[in-house]
Amino acid sequence: MTKPDWRDPDMPVLLQTTNGIVEVSPEQATEIFAERMRKLEIMQYEIPLLNWRDDPTYNLRRSKP
């Protein structure tokens, strides 16, 4: 048995999913990551991410004006 070579373009990719760890091809991994990014972009418009400057609990020790 030989060690996996990280330079091999056909080396399988291990992904964490809700069903556990899954082994997929690099092409499938690219599609899965693209789909995840599309979902994150859509979710960002539905629920905007908070900026640390807008978070009232960021620095509770700061004196309030």
Q: How many helices?
A: 1
Low-confidence stretches: none
Kindly estimate the percentage of residues that lie in beta strands according to DSSP: 15-25%
The whole-angstrom Rg is: 20 Å
The strand order across the widest sheet is 1-2
Secondary-structure element sequence? EEH
| Main pleated sheet | 2 strands, antiparallel
Shape by Cα distribution: elongated
Pairing-aware structural class of the strands and helices?
alpha+beta
Regarding quaternary structure, how should these chains be classified? single chain
First-residue to last-residue Cα separation: 67 Å
User: How many E-type strands?
Assistant: 2
- Summed over residues and divided by their number, the pLDDT gives a mean of 82
Which percent range fits the helix content? 25-40%
Walk me through what this model shows.
The structure is a single chain. This protein is of the alpha+beta class. It has a domain at 13-46. The protein is 32% helix and 15% strand. A two-stranded antiparallel ribbon has the order 1-2. A hairpin with a 2-residue loop joins strand 1 (13-17) and strand 2. The protein is elongated and about 65 Å long. The mean pLDDT is 82.
List keywords for this structure.
alpha+beta; 65 residues
